[in-house]
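Form 7-S
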Amino acid sequence: MDAKPELKPQPTPESESLLANQALPLGEHIVAVLGHGDPAYGTARKSRAFTAQSDYFRVQFKGFARVAGGHWQRFDGDDAAFHTGLNAAWARADHPSRSVLFGPRSGVSLTDAFAGSALDGYLFAQAIEWAKTVYPDYQVTPGVVNTAGLSEEERLRCNAFYAAQGFDFEWSDAAQKSAGYRKEKAGRLLGIWDVEKVAEVSGEAILDTLAQHDAYKHELEYKLAEVEATQASLRRQVQKERQTNQIMTGVTAFVMLIGLMYAIGAF
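Output:
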């Protein structure tokens, strides 16, 4: 009998934290987070790292400002910074195993200002869209979600979160303390999000807003110039009337004085 060829063990997948440190920015764009209190705006940054074994993609978000009553309120602290574990999602393709792993493994976590918004769905969808476009035939490495501390409503939302992206989602135990999600091919995932709650703002839209703001500014400046010209005209008119009144007052006083002098026989 012919000896069966010895199968070489596959190398261990590379650390996503190591790949994250090597990732180079691909670009940034403006994102509006709506339907969660006052509208908020921030920046989404995509980055990527290549090695002989791996291809790593990451998208991160940081808040810029919330708009309340027409006033811009700048974010600060964690909400206004790029993080690896917060307001972020990633996908790592491992070439030897022809598989894709999505992260963070515990699920997308948001900073306090964006907790409860649809931003997590948007970030996760970006990682999925990249994987299904670049490596559609790679299998998806199963993930596990711990739901022990979640309420019934939060568990349902967790189920819907993964199911909405096309994952096969199932509870691992009757108490629903943990769940698993999987898919045989990355190309069969969806990569969608609620566009009414999270919207990418195009460069054209930004330029259009700036143009409208500039036109409005010029309109206000023109109206201000008109008001200032009217005020200057009124000031000149008032000054002229004041001078006329002073002259008339002097003439009246002079006439009265002459009349008085005639009356007492001073002339």
